[in-house]
Write a structure and sequence with these properties.
The chain is α/β, with parallel strands linked by helices. It folds into 2 domains: 217 residues, 3-Layer(aba) Sandwich (D-Maltodextrin-Binding Protein, domain 2); 242 residues, Periplasmic binding protein-like II (D-Maltodextrin-Binding Protein, domain 2), CATH 3.40.190. The protein is built from 22 helices and 14 strands. Helix 11 packs across helix 20 and helix 20 crosses helix 22. The longest helix has 28 residues. About 8% of the residues have low confidence.
Length: 560
Amino acid sequence: MKRKRVLAAFLAAALAASCFAGCKGGEPSSSAAAKPGSAASSATSSGVSSNGEEGPVSKTGFPVMQEEHTFKIVHSISTGDLVGNWEDKDYTRKIEEDTGLKIEWVGIPQNSYNDQVGIQLAANDMPDVFWNGVPSFSQFVGNFTALDEYLADYSPTVVKFFQEYPSIKAASVFPDGALYGLPQVQMNNTRATGVYFINKDWLGNVGMQAPNTLDELYEVLKAFKEQDANGNGDPSDEIPFSFGKKETLTGLLAPFGIYGNGSPDNIDTPYLNVKDGKVTFYPIEDSYYQFLQYMNKLYREGLIDPNSFVQEEVDIQAKGKEGKVGTLWVGSYIDIMVGDRGDEYEYFLPLENAEGKRTYVPNKFSGDVNPNRFIVTKNCEYPAAMVRLYDYLNSSFENKLLFDWGPEGEAWEKTEDGKILRLNADLPEGFSSYAEVRHTLSMGVLGPILWDDADQAEFAITNDRDVEYYARRDPLMEYAIDDKDQIPVGQDTVENSQEAAVLITEIRTYMDNFQSEAIMKGIDDAKWQKHLEDVQKYDITRYVEIKQAFYDRMMELLGG
């Protein structure tokens, strides 16, 4: 019963805390500094820290700051967070109490985070830290503080991590040798995550199996539309296939020989492919023309959700939880997209191309790596204190577990052999998915946490959700492309990044419009030839040159 009451109790506590804060005019809480015996109360007034270090920032021990100072941190609020305001959460209060740091947490909804952060950067109205990165990072690098000089003294955790994972360090360091952001890493022992799922109950109702080819996919989607696949007596309420406006279509591009990491939603390398070490702009290749014709056929016959080109992932989730979607792309766990209907779905292998070959595009790392997730701006008076905050978050397995997954007994528990078991089989009352549990009770994937392979080994793989997730690994990786067929993660020069960003903005605007129109309205030889002429106006040759030079430099750096 304790777990069943957790959400109500949490919401009540959050409401009380926010009301209390409101009575004080909304100022950041100073409880950590005032509490007798707390880390903050031990600060001296001499300007010398309790561990003997000169200056306001202690290299070791707590409190971090020996002077009164409030730091402003901008963070993203997950769509799965049922509370939202981090000021009112137990884990942020623990951060402040343990470190003695006073923090003003400024949350931005996940769906508008990039847009709002972009406005702040343009207006030079920046916080001390961007907790979840910034869009077009390289363009704004002049606004950020180089952190490499602080690591040896203030973050032994990061120094050790980079020694163990030099490829992640390579992805984080700029050509000038400086490091302007600290990474978020979630090693999970599998690079096989994104895959198409299909409603197996619907397949049974129409007497079909999961598709292996593009033609079979078409036939399945057609049956979903015409044969009352959900069995409710209404043959018009099924959505055979749905995707979002920012979604990669890699799973459908791959059968046409387009499988690099240049999917349209990619921020840095949209519409690019790699073949035999050569970067290409695939929207001028015949294979892309064939892809557009196939997608138009699906759309023309009502097999694609007509809202796909305008909807967000949250819109697909709502439809999935209502049992309306037959086929959709899933980046990690199926229940994130369809809630408690996960058992109705199964993934299917990459579709075969015309020669019967399957091709899968895995993640570049085992898990997720975001090189510039924790960014200290030049508005921050004490960068070393924020580096110490980052180090504190990652300084122990226990800290990472709390801040990234939540409290024991509510989000996880220990098994008899000491493994960590996520409590995602029996959700607390009020939660519709484990993603909601995680992102309400902790920072979840929006925290700048470093999970390495050793950490991952501490988690038990026992429940159906995780068993299904890891069952994909070997079957999908059997068809994985070579790492050299993807543009690596890394940092380009500021000049190249800025030039590429201008080109990408224009190319993306044109290509996004062209692609959606071609899929919805159709494409023929005349329209294709006009496209081949029009797209040249956007200097795609220079765009490819910049990315080819970056690819070559990163391959040399990585020893490829």
